[in-house]
Design a protein that fits this description.
Largest sheet: 4 strands, antiparallel
Strand content: 35-45%
């Protein structure tokens, strides 16, 4: 039996491995200063220029910082899935927390894939002012 090589099936199903995606696609950042509860962090991927119903985001990292004495923490969740406030549920991708003693840093070599056509919203559990959330992402238009 002959072994065939198919470079479209390396890593994640149907595409190159995450390291190649990170190296050869644009990694962008979006920054939200003092984001309100349920505010949009990333709009629907299909609404981006060149978008389609199969467009999606890969999330490479999240940073949350504050210089306020009050803590800043919450959840990032899928904008198309029903989400219950202050609850980790099926819509939740990642939770974060920071205070004046320490920021929150999360990054990965194997990104979180936000489902097709979806965006990212914030469920702000605590935070008053003087806080900032940054998300590093790639926008994929297959």
């Amino acid at each position: 039996m002959a072994v065939t090589y198919n470079n479209t099936k390396i890593g994640r199903a149907g595409g190159p491995n995450p390291a190649l995606i990170k190296e050869y696609t644009t990694v962008s950042t979006v920054c939200k200063g003092d984001p309100g509860d349920n505010s949009v962090v990333l709009i629907d991927a299909s609404a981006q220029p060149g978008g389609s119903s199969s467009s999606y985001y890969l999330i490479w990292g999240v940073t949350a910082v504050t210089d306020s004495a009050a803590p800043f923490f919450g959840l990032l969740y899928d904008s198309l899935t029903s989400h219950s406030a202050n609850t980790v549920d099926a819509a939740t991708y990642i939770g974060f927390g920071a205070n004046v003693q320490g920021p929150f840093f999360w990054n990965t070599e194997h990104p979180l894939k936000i489902k097709d056509k979806s965006g990212l919203k914030i469920d702000l559990v605590a935070g008053t002012s003087k806080y900032n959330l940054t998300v590093a992402y790639s926008l994929i238009h297959p």
